[in-house]
Design brief:
Number of helices: 8
CATH class of the largest domain: Alpha Beta
Strand order of the largest sheet: 2-13-14-1-3-5-4
CATH topology of the largest domain: Deoxyribonuclease I, Chain A
Oligomer: single chain
Number of strands: 23
Length: 476
């Protein structure tokens, strides 16, 4: 697809490498090629794909003893040796020894804008920087990206603390569009990648774990993986995706080889048992009706300086251009409209106050509000059903009316109480399926601060004038 005012082809698709590695407070070896080429164990790239440089490389590290500049220079150097490309730094953010670096191909440098960085401490009393998260966000043409690298609380028995670390980061990391402060970071980006030493362990006897690993039987171990269990209970990473794990646990190895797991660790408080576990993970969450495909997820087997193995993932991600209308500025006769016939939300609350909805989107000049709901009812003391008819709901006017533009847009909704203006749930809706001459139904879940708080359904349509119904071919 071509940008309307450019002779240069704008990409529909880019490839992104994500890596996470707890470096164990020692410098890296000179050769880390296997990490950024996704070679080793698990789902790896074929020999042809390995030779194709990614558009964006994102490196997340924990217990990284190198200085910030030294680490960025090292990464740019190893990439140049392999690809013969001088990758440009987009951002570097660090919190003590937790670091995230984003590098991009030179030809994409001018496609990146709105770069934002942030960090959150989750150490003792949330003030020490030994645990926490660092984040980077930016726009690639018309698509927003967020990247979070974290190091969560260690210890087999500290699952609840890790869950709280996650929720603190979700709430406190300040990334992306400041106008979206009503929404946590899991809803602020078209694509959000969250990775790091999450430190979730396996709830199983050490000898049983070792026996399963020696027989390459991973399924019984994945069933007792604390992160999988907490996700199933909707405690953390609500609706995040993770590619299937087909590689052995990445922690805790004897340094210098990958043949032996070491599970006793001497601490000032005594001997701690660290069962082999998938501490190092890469997850993601994308807006509905967008394109993303994970084509590698694994760990290296030849980088042995740390007691953790580096973990890699690579993604094929659809991106949109910075759209410029062929028709120029909209006249009133050519205006597209987003119209709602009705909305019904079921929210988790024992309150019986009235509610209203706020609507946000990059396709709107400013956010819009509904009137208060006209009817509500409750069959359960802990939930309230609230309903709005078309009279209470605003008609939204996108800044551009072209169908090519509107197909890529999303609406963010937040349901707020009249008595305290507090949000009781947020969601995202893709406009793509709502375009047409008749109203379409939508149904999705509501969440607030990482917790599922209800659901929302409704009937709406995106009305596009006939002269704006152009078409274009996409790669996806």
């Amino acid at each position: 697809m071509k940008n309307k005012h450019s002779h240069q082809d704008e990409p529909d698709m880019i490839s992104i490498f994500i890596g996470t590695w707890n470096m164990g407070s020692v410098p890296p070896p000179k050769n880390i090629t296997s990490w950024f080429t996704s070679k080793g164990l698990g789902k790896t790239l074929d020999e042809v794909t390995v030779a194709i440089p990614h558009d964006i490389y994102v490196f997340g590290t924990q217990e990284n003893s190198l200085g910030d500049k030294e680490w960025v220079d090292f990464l740019r150097g190893v990439l140049k040796d392999f690809t013969e490309i001088e990758y440009r730094p987009v951002a570097m953010q660090s919190l003590w020894n937790i670091k995230v670096v984003v590098l991009v191909k030179p030809e994409h440098e001018n496609r990146i804008s709105h770069v934002s960085t942030s960090s959150v401490k989750t150490g003792i009393a949330n003030t020490l920087g030994n645990k926490g998260a660092v984040g980077v966000s930016f726009m690639f043409n018309g698509t927003s990206f967020g990247f979070v690298n974290c190091h969560l609380t260690s210890g087999n028995e500290k699952t609840a603390r890790r869950n709280q670390n996650y929720l603190d980061i979700l709430r406190l990391l300040s990334l992306g569009d400041k106008q979206l402060s009503s929404f946590d970071i899991s809803l602020r980006f078209t694509h959000l990648f969250w990775f790091g030493d999450l430190n979730y362990r396996l709830d199983m006897d050490i000898q049983e774990i070792l026996n399963y690993i020696s027989r390459k039987e991973l399924e019984p171990l994945l069933k007792v993986d604390q992160l999988n269990l907490e996700k199933e209970k909707h405690k953390v990473f609500l609706r995040f995706g993770e590619e299937e794990i087909t590689f052995p646990p990445t922690y805790r190895y004897e340094r210098g080889s990958r043949d032996t797991y070491v599970w006793h660790k001497q601490k000032p408080t005594g001997v701690r048992t660290n069962v082999p576990s998938w501490c190092d993970r890469i997850l993601w969450k994308s807006y509905p009706e967008t394109h993303i495909n994970c084509n590698a997820y694994g760990c290296t087997d030849d980088i042995v300086t740390s007691d953790h193995s580096p973990v890699f993932a690579s993604f094929e991600v659809g991106v949109t251009s910075q759209f410029v209308s062929k028709k120029g500025l909209s006249k009133s006769s050519e205006q597209a409209y987003i119209e709602f016939e009705s909305i019904e939300a079921i929210v988790k609350t024992s309150s019986r106050t009235k509610f209203f909805i706020e609507f946000y989107s990059t396709c709107l000049e400013e956010f819009k509000k509904s009137f208060e709901n006209d009817t509500q009812s409750s069959d359960n003391i802990n939930f309230l059903k609230v309903q709005w008819s078309s009279r209470q709901l605003p008609t939204l006017k996108p800044i551009l009316s072209d169908i090519e533009y509107l197909q890529d847009q999303h609406l963010l909704l937040t349901v707020k109480s009249l008595d305290g203006y507090e949000s009781y749930g947020e969601c995202v809706i893709a406009l793509k399926s709502m375009i047409g001459s008749t109203a379409q139904q939508f149904l999705t879940f509501l969440s607030h601060r990482g917790e599922e708080t209800g659901n929302i359904r409704g009937s709406m349509r995106v009305r596009v004038p006939a002269e704006r119904l152009g078409t274009r071919e996409r790669l996806y």
